Amino acid sequence: MWRAGDLPQLVKQGVRRVISRQLADGELLNELHHVAEDNLNRHLSVATEWHPHDYVPWDLGRNFAAMGGQDWSPEQSQLSEIAKAAMITNLLTEDNLPSYHREAAQYFSLDSAWGTWVGRWTAEEARHSIVLRDYLVVTRGVDPVALERARMAHMTTGFGATAEEEAQHKTDFLLSIAYVSFQELATRVSHRNTGKVCTDPVADRMLARIAADENLHMIFYRNVCGAALDLVPDQAIDAVAAVVENFRMPGRGMPDFRRNGVLMAKHGIYDPRQHLEEVVTPTLRKWQIFERTDFSAAGEKRREQLAVYLTKLQAEVVKFEEQRDRLLAREAKKRELQAT
């Protein structure tokens, strides 16, 4: 883990006077267009075609009451409460795609390679909600009525910058590209670990397929953000640090998000250590944030602030795990007493 005091040692070999460069969003889009085009072509060359219907056990399906069958009841679900919470959270997150498309279109534009990417990314993301919902409805994994009501509520609220973020002008291209670089990786981790807790090979295969998509999306965004760091180092490090210091998953605002998020963290689907060690740290390392020598004094100061935050985050990870271990131990003891 990086410590604030380590930074001068890390960069002293290449310290030089750097003049900070600042570009507006339109200029950044133009300057980075070739990077977007190259990475779009790369993505199209490696992306695997797949079809949601191939990942759903249709033979388990049957009619609900409106079609002469039986409506959902809790005993029909083969998922644990933890798996249900994670699956619902993941699906409702994917459901909000129209909001994400709007944000992407606004900050990445719908012109040239940028527009082609936004369209392709949106089409690929749409498969995720399709296959997750089909699986949950066919297998009766969760209450479909409650799920639909939650979808209506979450999509009505939508996704976008908070009033606080807008007041701080934290809604530009660089913040958007930095955010999705981390968020796509975080979503990959969440999907992959959700598949493991479902204890169903069908669900595990399906979520592994979704996670593979998220990984390719992350690579596109991470490469573009890396190019932005080369182009406007100070401007980009400010965006990256702001995202890391204020990161929130896109599911914020959905019904029961806090409750489900706590369950997911408590049982290792997406917890603070995973966030730090599987999302934040490898991404910063890929960009060589703490080895770069192209920041001005202002950029180096911002990097120092980021290092301080990471040290604080590491301490919070340890504190969370200590609290979680105590809680899980109490729950295990309680179950043991109830069983005697």
TrEMBL record:
One of its GO terms (molecular function) is metal ion binding. InterPro entries: Fatty_acid_desaturase-2 (IPR005067), Ferritin-like_SF (IPR009078), RNR-like (IPR012348). The keyword Ribosomal protein does not apply. Fe cation 2 binds at residues 125, 184, 214, 217. The keyword Iron applies. Belongs to the fatty acid desaturase type 2 family. This is Putative acyl-[acyl-carrier protein] desaturase. It comes from Mycolicibacterium helvum.
